[in-house]
Specification:
The protein is mainly alpha-helical and 111 residues long. The protein has one domain. It has five helices and two strands; from the N terminus they run H-H-H-H-E-E-H. A two-stranded antiparallel ribbon has the order 1-2. A hairpin with a 2-residue loop joins strand 1 and strand 2. The radius of gyration is 13 Å and the shape is globular. The protein starts with a helix and ends in a 12-residue tail after the last helix. The model has no long low-confidence stretch (mean pLDDT 93).
């Protein structure tokens, strides 16, 4: 298992301009942490070591990921994060879902 400092390091590698207090940085670390301990709020909160004052924000991320199908029934439905060509973009799009900047839309329901 990868530890949380390694996850923080990876997020900084992907976007060195994000400060650790930035909402997107926190969402990205939470999302990557889910790959290690599962998409479960309590497990992630314990794994990350974020302070209790961050819990409400992390709950909002979870709610948005659940509403948009990223987390469902204890499974992570990523948008192709591991694709060599566009996986990084897919990951950051899902971070945007968590922060409320984006929503996932089912192509079948598009007009």
């Amino acid at each position: 298992m990868i530890d949380f400092p390694a996850i923080e390091k990876e997020v900084h590698r992907m976007d060195s301009g994000l400060a650790v207090w930035n909402e997107s940085f926190i969402a990205a670390t939470v999302l990557l942490s889910a790959t290690q301990v599962g998409p479960h709020l309590r497990s992630i909160f314990h794994f990350t070591g974020y302070r209790k004052n961050q819990l409400a924000k992390i709950r909002k991320f979870f709610k948005r990921w659940e509403q948009n199908g990223v987390f469902k029934d204890g499974v992570i439905y990523h948008g192709g994060w591991f694709d060599e060509r566009c996986g990084g973009v897919a990951f950051w799009l899902d971070v945007g879902v968590g922060t409320g900047m984006l929503q996932r839309v089912d192509d079948e329901n598009e007009g």
